[in-house]
Design a protein that fits this description.
With 619 residues, the protein is an alpha/beta fold. Helix content is 32%, strand content 14%. The chain is built from 20 helices and 19 strands. The chain has helices spanning 9-23, 38-45, 49-55, 164-167, 187-201, 220-230, 238-243, 269-277, 286-306, 330-349, 400-403, 424-431, 452-459, 477-481, 494-502, 508-515, 525-531, 534-538, 568-578, 605-618, and strands spanning 4-7, 62-65, 76-78, 83-90, 102-108, 112-116, 122-126, 131-132, 135-136, 142-146, 172-176, 213-218, 256-260, 354-355, 420-421, 438-441, 446-449, 553-559, 585-591. The strands form six sheets. A nine-stranded mixed beta sheet has the order 3-4-5-11-10-12-13-18-19, sandwiched between helices. A two-stranded antiparallel sheet has the order 1-2. A two-stranded antiparallel ribbon has the order 6-7. Mean pLDDT is 87; it is low at 1-32, 36-60 and 366-397.
Length: 619
């Protein structure tokens, strides 16, 4: 195999130290410290073709790549933001789409000393004495946005973009373009992993701590942030990473994952949607109603087999009920308590009189500001992408529903709140305008709900067609995601396929055909679905448990009123993480009244994300 074979930084350092001790050398070269010149790296890393062929047979503890490290003579400088930056850096040697598979790096000036080359570029060296707050070039966290609504592509940057909120905080900011759902899963996450590997490969010449990478995203971006966070070093990705020429022999795990409204765990998402929200559907045919009911039953089977536990290690289950489909049991009770906690947080956070109209959210709330990376994808959100990653010609409204090309139906919840409420009791009375489903204790300023079904009827009506993610006609965004790279949709839900087959549905043959197809590396959609399902790696009941390096820190926020997925999506993810060995912290909150947005109880999403990263770095 041609290419460079490079000893891992720590291993090389250990070897050099050993040689120095044994031979009494005063200079071994290639110590792996930040700031080594590119020339030094080249001389220490390049081996003969004969040696390369020999060593490539066993790359344990070594790095294999054809890629050069970041060129430290090619930095540019932005004086307004006081950062050095590079754009258009290739992170894989055999890109599937060069329009996307490059990255950009933004580094606070304090971390590097630059010499003007006279042509608009700078030659930079790591400045180990420079600081931004408590951070240095050695320990600064690296943050990576994943702005992929509806699993769309993330366009590679082609010009300077200010990310000063992050660099002013002392973070190194890496924007990696990645392919979208039209390329078929696992293309997007494969690209992000390749970028992470490249950053680790460049750790000794790039400011920032490559062991402290945090990803963050919302909706489909939140989903892919959760996938990156849960699938670190998963061997299932190896063939795909090899296809695009990713760096081999380094980790693609991250330290932390921030997920707003993550539309993930798609292996059970159709079933969860009908279990929680199917009762709000209307005008279904007899066959469609039977499909909806059977999907709800299938979710109960899934939960009772999954072994999902609460924070105390108690296994949660669903039980048959007199009203509804499996609307009882410890799992049901736990979800009901999550909804009540969301409402009670709102009551605790909110000062009355309260103007519900000012928030623009269902049911009023929350008290926080949706600025920064907010729900309209403004500020530093690189969005306004369709599935190809291009901006709409008219610029779009900025609402994520307008730009993610996900199929939704117009729905209206049972209640509509507007105007000013003088007291908490006035607000509760408005919630109960169509019938009492919330009880309120003024003395403790706490509330309780009658049932999940009543909450859903008021706030979270179904907004997607039957087969919310694996749509019966194959026309949903997730169908394209699990297609085969030609932009066409394919079915992926085997439980739904079994239901259709048992009913003798005319859709059954389409599902059977799609589920049997294989992709470029010979995998069926079942394997690809596992790769995009965090719970496959997190639940002890799953064969994927323990096969990946999971991020230690997680922050999950969701608008509890959004109807893009069932609440079980975010709740199950948080619970699985709580019970996964090695996880240091899981910060999960639902935001009352908020929809499909970067929901925050208080403050704005960017500031809260930065503060969370800072807290993680102190642990």
């Amino acid at each position: 195999m041609k290419g460079k074979v490079i000893s891992m930084k720590r291993k090389w350092l250990a070897v050099c130290m050993t040689l120095c001790m044994m031979l009494g050398l005063t200079a071994c070269g290639g110590t792996g410290d930040k700031g080594a010149s590119n020339e030094q790296e080249s001389s220490s890393e390049t081996v003969s073709e004969e040696d390369s062929d020999s060593e490539s047979q066993d790359t344990s503890g070594s790095v294999t790549t054809d890629l050069s490290k970041i060129d430290n003579s090619a930095w540019q400088y932005n004086s307004d933001d006081d950062v050095y930056y590079q754009i258009g850096i290739s992170y894989c040697s055999n890109p599937a789409d060069e329009n996307y598979e490059t990255l950009a790096v933004f580094v606070p000036r304090a971390y590097m000393t630059g010499t003007d080359n006279g042509d608009g570029t700078y030659t930079c060296e790591i400045n180990s004495d420079g600081t931004v707050g408590s951070y240095t070039a050695e320990n600064a966290p690296i943050v990576m946005p994943i702005n992929t609504p509806g699993y769309s592509a993330q366009a590679a940057l082609t010009e300077y973009t200010s990310v000063s909120q992050y660099t002013d905080a002392g973070f190194v900011y890496v924007h990696a373009g990645c392919r979208g759902r039209d390329a078929g899963a696992p293309a997007g996450v494969t690209d992000l992993k390749a970028a992470i590997r490249y950053i680790r490969y460049c750790d000794d010449v790039l400011a920032g701590d490559a062991e402290s990478i945090f990803t963050f995203g919302m909706s489909g971006g939140g989903a892919q942030s959760s996938v990156v966070g849960s699938t670190g070093d998963s061997s299932l990705y190896d063939a795909y990473l090899e296809e695009i020429g990713a760096v081999e022999g380094v980790s693609d795990a991250v330290l932390g994952s921030m997920c707003w409204c993550p539309i993930t765990n798609l292996d059970s998402a159709d079933e969860a949607y009908e279990w929680m929200m199917g009762t709000t559907r209307s005008n279904l045919s007899d066959e469609e109603q039977e499909i909806s009911d059977k999907l709800a039953e299938a979710f109960a089977t899934y939960i009772n087999d999954a072994g999902i536990k609460d924070e105390n290690g108690n296994v949660l289950t669903l039980e048959e009920s007199s009203d509804g489909i499996y609307q009882a049991g410890s799992y049901y009770d736990y979800m009901k308590s999550v909804i009540e906690k969301s409402l009670n947080n709102f009551l605790a956070d909110t000062t009355f009189p309260y103007d519900a109209s000012a928030t623009g959210n269902k049911g009023g709330g929350p008290g926080g500001d949706f600025g920064g990376r907010g729900g309209r994808m403004k500020g530093n959100f690189d969005g306004n992408f369709d599935v190809s990653g291009e901006a709409p010609a008219d610029g779009g409204s900025g609402n994520i529903e307008d730009i993610d090309n996900i199929t939704r139906n117009q729905t209206s919840s049972g209640i509509s709140l507007s105007g000013t409420y003088e007291t908490a009791q006035d607000y509760i009375d408005a919630l109960n305008a169509n019938g009492e489903w919330v009880t309120y204790d003024e003395a403790s300023n706490t509330a309780a709900i009658t049932s999940i079904a009543d909450f859903v009827k008021a706030f979270k009506s179904a907004s997607k067609n039957l087969g919310a993610f694996d749509q019966l006609d194959g026309g949903q965004g997730e169908n394209t995601l699990f297609g085969y790279g030609d932009g066409s949709g394919a079915h992926f839900d085997s439980a739904l396929a079994d239901i259709l087959n048992s009913l003798g549905s005319g859709y059954a043959s389409d599902y059977s055909e799609d589920l049997s197809k294989t992709d470029s590396v010979g995998n069926t959609v079942d394997t690809r679905l596992n790769m995009y399902t965090p719970l496959y790696y997190l639940l002890e009941s799953s064969e994927g448990y323990g096969t990946s390096t999971v991020a230690k820190y997680w922050r999950i926020r969701t608008g509890i009123a959004h109807s893009d997925c069932a609440l079980s999506t975010e709740m199950n993810l948080a619970l699985a993480l709580e019970n996964t060995e090695g996880i240091e912290d899981v910060d999960f909150e639902t935001v009352w009244g908020a929809g499909h947005t970067e929901a925050e109880r208080t403050g704005d999403s960017t500031t809260n994300f930065i503060e969370w990263v800072n807290e993680c770095m102190k642990k």
